[in-house]
Amino acid sequence: MWSLSVALILLLVMTFLPTAYVIQQPGPVYNTLGEATTSDGEQVPLISIDGATTYPTEGSLDLLTVQVVGNRERTPSWFELAAAWFQPSRAVLPIDAVFPVGQTTEERNEQSAADMVDSQKEATAAALTELGYDIDARVTVYSVLDDSAADGILEKDDVILSADGRPVTDASSLREIVNEGGGDPVELVVERDGDELTLSVTPRESEVEGESTLLLGITLLHDYEFPFQVTIQLNNVGGPSAGMMFALGIIDTLTPGELNGGANVAGTGTISADGTVGPIGGIRQKMWGAVDAGATYFLAPETNCAEVVGHVPTGLRVFSVSELDDALDVLEAIRDDGDLDALPTCTAG
């Protein structure tokens, strides 16, 4: 009796002890061919296009989300963690992997919102490029970090045209130019309120993921000149992982017939303007979210395949994609009753 009493007391104490983990689980699923709810509670098309001919769609092209249970202010109890550990649709992660040390909740939300805006623009550029439109790219300053090298020099919404006389086409090209300078001042030509300015910024050395690099202290967005307006309405969802599904939804809306043959298809993956599909987080939870939403096919980034193998829920068929064209090939095979077995999938090793 004494042993049982002590055990119960210890279990009760553990319920209130803080933990260093959070729980990842499937979040809401959104059909890019369907409707979304605005902040005012109004139902509107998730993707709407003004200035171009659009066509009816059928079935679904679902984007998946992941919810995080817990934060630094309130972590899940040990009982909640134990329960989540035995559920395949949930994952227990160190809190530092989701909420980086030193990053405030406000900063995390701001970065997540910026990633979502950027992914929508990249998806639109990828879709329209696939359809044969010429797209002009612009690199825009989204924010300037306080006390950084660029603080007081660059401003939000500045368009960076060139650095040290070389055109800036994306964040990678600017990063390369800055680091090639070895710490010397970088001469930037920017467009601000319709005027061109020449500004000098001296980068500062910093450590990113264990490696020394030179930074200006800005976050960037890719902006584009599109031939018509594409609006993506999706509230309270952040991050870049919906990019590929946005692109497929735009293509389906702008082309006759059903891109997916009327089937229920889900998927995930970042996308860049050139159509490259990139990795995302929480893919196992997203596969379970796809099943719960009624999808029978799932498009997974090739770079996430190691996390997919051995964890595919029953009833879901997963295809591996590395480019937007790969995803279109899968949808074509589904639509035309093609040979699905001939398409790439995630395999062990």
From TrEMBL:
**Catalytic residues identified in the record:** S241, K286
Top EC class, one word = hydrolase
One GO MF term: ATP binding
Domain named PDZ: which ranges? 116-205
GO BP terms in the entry: protein catabolic process; proteolysis
**Could you tell me which CDD domains the record lists for this protein?**
cpPDZ_EcRseP-like (cd23081)
Q: Which UniProt keywords apply?
A: Hydrolase, Protease, Serine protease
- Reactions this protein catalyses: Hydrolysis of proteins in presence of ATP
Q: What is its EC number?
A: 3.4.21.53
Q: Which Gene3D superfamilies match?
A: 2.30.42.10, 3.30.230.10
- Top-rank taxon, per record: Bacteria
* InterPro entries in UniProt: Lon_proteolytic, Lon_Prtase, PDZ, PDZ_sf, Ribosomal_Su5_D2-typ_SF, Ribsml_uS5_D2-typ_fold_subgr
What family, per the record?
Answer: Belongs to the peptidase S16 family.
Its name, as the record gives it, is endopeptidase La
Q: Which organism is it from?
A: Microbacterium ulmi
